[in-house]
Amino acid sequence: METFFVVKVSCRIFTDFYPFPTGRRIYGRGYNNDYFWAAKSLHMKLKKIPKQLFHFFLQGVLVLAPISITIWTVIAVFNWIDGILPNLVYNIAPKLIGTDQFGVPRRIPGLGFVVFIAIALIVGYISPSFIVSRLMDFADRLLEKTPGIKLIYTTLKDFFEAFAGNKRKFDKAVLVNIDGPDIWRMGFITQEELHEFGLQEYVAVYVPQSYAFSGHLFFVKRDRVRIVTDISSADALKFAISGGVAEVDEQ
Questions:
Q1: Which residues face 155 on adjacent strands?
Q2: What letter would DSSP give residue 127?
Q3: Alpha carbon of 199 to those of 202, 206, 248: distances in Å?
Q4: Spatial separation of the C-alpha atoms in residues 9 and 185, rounded to whole Å
Q5: Which of 7, 13, 78, 144 lies in the 20 to 30 Å Cα band around 195?
Q6: Beta strand 183-191 pairing with 173-180
Q7: DSSP-assigned states of every residue in 2-65
Q8: 185 located within any domain
Q9: Residues 6, 156: Cα–Cα separation, whole Å
Q10: Is beta strand 225-227 parallel, antiparallel or unpaired with respect to 215-221?
Q11: 3 state SS of 209
């Protein structure tokens, strides 16, 4: 009797929760097969909703992140440049512009930015002249010989000249072979001659790291360097920093 009772109860539970696909009422509580599959389909759809919501969230982040970061960067740089003039004038003549209720120097939005751009244009225009160039050379030699300031000034000067001006360094993109015979890295030649280091037939190649402002400097032989001629140096730098995901245009 005990064995029969256990078998009977087990069959009863099985038929209650797992109805046979007959489309009709069966022994037990009598769940209908159509209702079972409809409930199962609804359950599967409900399980997909969190995944779909997360997918939509990621899609939104991918669209908004580059735009938001770009706008934030532009606004931050604009406000920083725009605040240089009021702070400078306030430090020289505090009573000339005064402060607001928060103790911040008063300013006209955009005026400092316009004045900064105008000064930069004027300095760039008159810098090639004889008198101004001599004054700039004198100031340059003075700063380069001043202890403490020399390191900061020369580092910043070389950094800005590497990206702009007549002494640009990142204008010659190359493929450099360092790790193996069939492995190439994207880099830029920064020095054509390395005689001061006792190296002949060597060049200095700077290899930037992906998604970072840092990189590595390598001294390699000329025969292990290939000049990239099909793309611009700007596209090559963008391609290297982005980890190879950025699209480049052939020249």
A1: none
A2: T
A3: 6, 17, 34
A4: 71
A5: 144
A6: antiparallel
A7: HHHHHHHHHHHHHHHHS--TTSS--SSS---HHHHHHHHHHHHHHHHHHHHHHHHHHHHHHHHH
A8: yes
A9: 86
A10: unpaired
A11: coil
Model pLDDT for residues 67-104, shown as the tens digit of each residue: 999 999 999 999 888 888 887 877 777 777 777 777 77
Q: What CA dihedral angle connects 238, 242, 243 and 249, to 10 degrees?
A: -40
Sheet holding 183-191, edge to edge: 215-221, 202-208, 183-191, 173-180, 225-227
Q: Which domain holds residue 214?
A: 173-241
Distance of CA 93 to the CA centre of its chain: 40
Per-residue CA distances from 229 to 13, 80, 89, 171 (Å): 76, 38, 49, 11
Three-state DSSP class for 171?
coil
| Spatial distance between the Cα atoms of 164 and 244, rounded to a whole number of angstroms | 24
| Residue 166 pLDDT grade (very low, low, confident, very high; cuts 50, 70, 90) | low
Residues in a beta bridge with 189: 205
In a domain, 15, yes or no: no
**Tokens 């992140």 -> residue:** 65
d(CA 54, CA 61): 11
CB 225 within 8 Å of CB 175: yes
Residue 236 domain-assigned?
A: yes
The pTM of the full predicted model, rounded to 2 decimals, is: 0.56
